[in-house]
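Chaperone protein DnaJ
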Amino acid sequence: MAKRDFYEVLGVARGASADEIKKAYRKKAKELHPDRNKDDADAEARFKEVNEAYDVLKDAEKKAAYDRFGHAAFEGGMGGGGPRGGYAGQGDFASAFSDVFEDLFGDFMGGRGGPGGPRSRASRGSDLRYNLRISLEEAFKGVQKTITVPGSSACTACNGTGAEGGAEPVTCPTCSGMGKVRAQNGFFTVERACPTCGGVGQVVKNPCRSCQGTGRIEKDRQLAVNIPAGVETGTRIRLAGEGEAGLRGGPTGDLYIFIEVREHAIFQRDGQTLFCRVPVSMASAALGGEVEVPTIDGGKSRVKIPSGSQSGRQMRLRGKGMPALRGTGVGDMVIELAVETPVNLTARQKELLQEFERIEADNSPESSSFFKKVKSFWDGMKG
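Tokens:
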């Protein structure tokens, strides 16, 4: 019986890409697998036919020969009798199916291996996070902080190799440095991490007694950290190479410092702008005057209060706010007046206020406007 066209077997067009061929093979292999078609006597033959087609079309050189000469490319020596000239044939399709199985489950089983094995023999250390709280004054000026970072450092006894005396690890004899082993299970080739080296591809003959072969030891470190002026809550500072030490001499991770600026007793912050709520007496608000307010740099500023000022009135002091982080310019400080009603009045004070109330003219514009609106509202309700 003549062989069917390999493109027809997989159900793809002749110009199909490698991804389209692989996708079609996955679908066919799953559909025709003998374990799923135990009652179909022809399932195994069709499954082998699909694997035979895929073994040729997945290879660029074999595919080019097949496109030019068809099945004759692999008969009578035209395609060569070596590993790249022949194809899987009847019953020898484990390799083709293994490629797709590895592609589908490679990440779970440890990934495809390169020249040095599926995993890096020396793994990178983890990144660390440190939460640092500072005051608003420190955020304004910038500050240097000494912090204690718990974590691991490269073992000095073995120079991070994990082997006694700093000797280099040797290739794992079980997996020959690949970090994984294969086991045939029917039509499947299953890969798993090498039980001897744990998937690293190397083993340490004489583990370092200080670090038990890991190449790193638990050790707290003190670091001096420069906090730039202008930072705010949520600012992240990265210190490259100050994280956890790598395994068996691998590169060190990074340290990320997350800034939190504590609330201030006087100032509230919004970006580069500072807000300061300043209480003033009723007399100062009515007559006008001056008030002395603090600034974040530790200085003082005198602010004029216009006569007739009401609570909530704002005045802006240019350049008295927070500096820009890694930039130029300084924000402003906004003063908000809070007019205070006097309490614990003496008899004389009460007498003066009562007299003021009797002779009060139309000098409470907001009050007059409000009650005019109220009267208009009531009149409208009556109408």
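The chain has four domains: 6-109, 128-261, 267-340, 347-382.
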